[in-house]
Each structure stands twice: as C-alpha cells, then as structure tokens.
Amino acid sequence: MSYTAPTGALPHSSLRMRAPAPDYASGSPPPQPRCVRDTGLELSLIVELVAKAMYSIGKIHLPVLTGKLKLSISVLREALDAMQADHLAEVAGRGDSDLDVHYQLTEGGRLRAAEFLARCRYVGPAPVTLQAYRDLAQRQSGRQAEAGHIGMAEMAAAFADDVLEPGVRDLLGAALQSRRPLLLHGPSGSGKTTLARKLGQLQTGLVAIPHAILVEGHIVQFHDPAVHLPASPQHARQNEERRNPDARWTLCRRPLVQVGAGLGYEMLDLRLDHASGVYRAPPHFMANNGILLIDDLGRQRLPAEELLNRFSAPLDSGCDQLTIEGGYKIAVPFDVTVVLATNLAPQALLDESFLRRIGYKILVGPLSEAAYAALFRRQCHQHALACDEDVLYYLITRLHYGSGRPLLASYPAELLGRLHDFAAFAGTTARLSAAAIEQAWHSMALGQGTAAAAAAPVTFSADSGTTLYERII
C-alpha cells in the first residue's frame, strides 16, 4: 500500500521533510529523533501507525505506545497533539507525571483506524527511510578501511579445534579478507557448510539493522531475529550509554543468511504479503553487511548459472534492483560476501567464465588419517566417552577402508550420536566398543541390515606389533 494523506488528513501532514543526515559512527544506530521531522517520515504515516496501535489495544499508556512503535515521547506527542486537534484521539487519563498519560481513539478515530487497517495491517516499529538505510549500510560496510579484519593469528585461534590443513585455513582467511565470492566444493559430509557458517561467526564488528524500511510508500519488514542476532548485552549497554539511539534500529552481529535447495526465483525479490499489505525482504537483501551462504549449489529450483548471473551485476556495482507492485524498480545496497557450497563438480555446474568470476575455489575433501583421528578423539570428549584407540583403529582400517567410504568430517559426530541413541534405547550406558561403533556404522548404510552386513570383529593385543599411533600418527 502507498502512504498518501487520506481524505481529511491532518494539517501539514502532506509535507515531505527529511532531516539532515546525522554524523554517527558505523556499527551504531543513529541518535533518537527529537521531532517528526527528524524521523524522515511524514506525519500522516506516524498518525496511521499510532491509530492502528491504539485500535488494537484500546486505551494505551504513552510509554507502552513508545515501546511498540520505537518512537520517542516527543515524536509521539507531536503526532498525538495533531490527532487530538483533528478529533481522532483523546486523553483517557492522567497520573502524577507527564509520562503517566493514557490515550484512546475517539469514535471518528476508530473509523479512521479501521480504514488504515483495511489497507495495511502492519502494527509495529516505525520504519526508517530507504535513504537512511542506504547511508548506514555504506558506513558499516565490511569493505570500509576502518572495519576490523581478521588476521592469521585470529584465524588460527578460531579454527584451533578444527582439523583444517594450514593451507586451507589460509585460503579461507584470504577469501574472507578479499570479500570476493568463495566456492567450497567437495563430497557431501566433508564439512563445507560448517566451515561456511564458521566464517560467518568470524565476521568482526556490529551493525545496526532496521526493523522496517519505507520504500516508495510501502513498508518492507527487514529485521529477522533468526538471522539478525543481537549484540551481546555488554555491547548493547555500551551503545546505549554512548548515545540515546534511535530505537527503530537494533544493534546486531553481522548477519549470515543461508539459503539452500528450496531457493526459487520468487525469493530473489520483494514479496508482498497480501493478507497484511507488507513486503518481505529477500534473503540477499537481509544479508547486507554480512555473508550470503548459498548451500547445495546446483540443487536450487533455478539453474546455477541463472542464479549466479542474477547476482553478477550487483556484485560489480554494489547495488541491486528490487521490484515493488506495479513493476517499479528500486535501488538497494548489495554489500554481501557470497559463499557457495556444493558437492557437485564445479566444472559440471558452471562454465569457465563463471568460474573465473569466483574469487576463491576451495576443495573441502576427506581428512587425513591423523586429522580424522584427532577429530574423533575430540568428539568422544564432547560426548563424554572414553576414546578406545583400538576401536578408532578398527573404525578407520576395517569400516572406512573396508567399505571404501572416505574419512569425512561428518562421520565422528554422527557415529557417536547414533551410539548414544542405541544405548538409550537399550537402557544402558553408552560405551565405545567395536560392536557399538559397528552397529552405529551399519545404521547409516542405506538398505542394509546390521547383522548381515557386519564385518568380522577384529581384536588387538598389546604385542600385536602395530599400534594405532604407528599406523595413523
């Protein structure tokens, strides 16, 4: 819906005024608006939001209204004064302080609010303007010179518990530093998605995310608590102490937005929810100032080349074009690091020209015997199991090598989790043994029974002449 002044609009509500851009630091919301003009919004829109909030709640306390719309007391009083002058709202009760005031809609106000709700059912934090979002997204871009970057020491510390080869770790660090597209490829279960998500956790700095954005008179819901994770309470408290922030923005960690095989054409643009009259932001828009992870590349509901072609121009220009109802195009920031993950051969998915556009192509393959053994021991510790070295030797030499299954990073956690499942079902305490790991192993085989498929047990003695460390380490 478009926000235009309805019949009988409030005085001066049709004026379009935008406050001058304030000077505030990146990674911090702008200061709280002190008047309607400072919000960058029309008075008529704020009146509409106030009326709809009051309609759904009834008599409402002024601080409650502030919390719901994320607007300051002074901004709301300006809107409420205009509503009272237009006989849309009235004071329902006063307390001892200036803040202890209750408001309610008049009969005419309820009729007007019903009209507003029929056009758009959004009742929530007031939006910020698209220009305000553009400005702040540019200030808090990870490409800015003052943005923090992770170095070799930080990468080594972050991946200390992982079994990455140093060369792979350095490639990941360089890719993260470059902000160019990154392709992780290798067999299913090799840990590509886990690595990509860890890159998301390594992003430095905080970003301010708006609850909603006003785009050509339409409200776009932007903040998603599933991907826009809040800053730590300490950082949030420090931000509030440093300035009186605009509550229409929330301080978050840099986002990592993951999409998978379910990604389709319709998810790459603004989507209008006809029931509410509100647009939903596409995933790559919500990933701004962070990472967009496209998992299972090649299994989406559109060809891989078409998907990457959709992002080629935005990657070059830093700007994307989205469409609102009626075919009108709007320019929005495209400040994302694109990470692709696939278990398909890159040459089978993309031609040479597309592959050249990808900055880093990293093979995430099977682990070495030593790395697999180290990972298994660590998983045993996390599952509160004593690691039997003979069982580990049996797992690698008889189960993996005997079946031809590679030493993939997903196996240790999966096997030990299943070992716990079988023990819980039997009502016993989980314990690592050749029989238990074999049972877990064969439960992962498609269409095989555990007893028939089991290999002959292998036993080891202290004087067998070959120890696990000699064979593997």
TrEMBL record:
Q: Which residues form the AAA+ ATPase domain?
A: 178-369
Annotated stretches, region: Disordered: 1-33
Annotated GO molecular function terms are: ATP binding
Q: Any idea which UniProt keywords this protein has?
A: ATP-binding, Nucleotide-binding
Q: What is this protein called?
A: ATP-binding protein
Q: Which residues form a coiled coil?
A: none
Give the domain of life: Bacteria
Which SMART domains has this protein been placed in? AAA
| Entry-linked Gene3D superfamilies | P-loop containing nucleotide triphosphate hydrolases
Query: What organism is recorded for this protein?
Result: Massilia violaceinigra
